[in-house]
User: What shape does this take?
Amino acid sequence: MPKITLSDHQPFSLDQTLGCGQVFRWDRAEDGWWYGIVKDKAIKIRQDGSILVFKGATTTFIRNYFSLDLDLKEVIKSIDQDPFIHAAIGSCTGLRLVRQPPWECLISYICSTNSNIPTIRRRIASLAEQFGKAIEFEGRTYYTFPNPTSIACEGNEGLTLCKLGYRQPYVFGTSCSVTDERQWEERIRRLPYDDARKELMTLHGVGPKAADCILLFAFQKYEAFPVDVWIRRIMQRNYIRNLDLDAGLTNRDYNRIRGFAREHFGDYCGYAQEYLYAARNG
DNA sequence: GACCAGGAAGAGT
DNA sequence: ACTCTTCATGGT
Assistant: This one.
């Protein structure tokens, strides 16, 4: 099986990275192997100290997916601006943002609104099972994430089994308007953060939070700072005390939090967001 | 801006 | 069994 040996200036934790909640299609087996589907590949991977062992993808693919080329030490140095974030970073050593496939990421975050993570995972697995392509891998069947046409062709009714609730027409509508996922991906990718954000928010079911997640997780726009209920609570308690707790998160509050984070944590504030989120129960 | 719908499943009591 | 919460968004 192919291996990657991590160097000293390449901090990486597979468990932190896949377990922090940024991805929905990976599972950790009892024996320490992680199994996941990325694009058209079923992959298994495990970490033994500084050695990564994997199957189902090339070394280049794994390096790119896990952002092993990113100088994480420098990123952390730049966001480590106060004792609170310092503690969060310390409790999630080796956490890296992965490079998610954009189309799957888009639909995932449309499905994520006001739902807990197990529910989101079930919805995405259901979409893949209904409309994706089956892959056999080590005696098990996995399903690729379906392209826009596969989802749209089934019609709105065909989505009912996926139990998306009110998100169903959003997933359907977005699958109809993004007919060519690669063309869509390239168009978003060459836009700067603000323009890409506006463009994403024209899609039905994509608000500020989902747009920021997609930009951060799929397009590596690290200046994005997604504000969900957890982040809002953390920011309110530890950084911006004069926010009204009982009011719903208004667009103004969202932008205040986002603006503060961008100023306070800098160009890689998205990384700060992920450390704060991952350490939320710690 | 305030309010509410849509809706399934986890978490806590 | 019951209530509250959940990686929010869109429409009125």
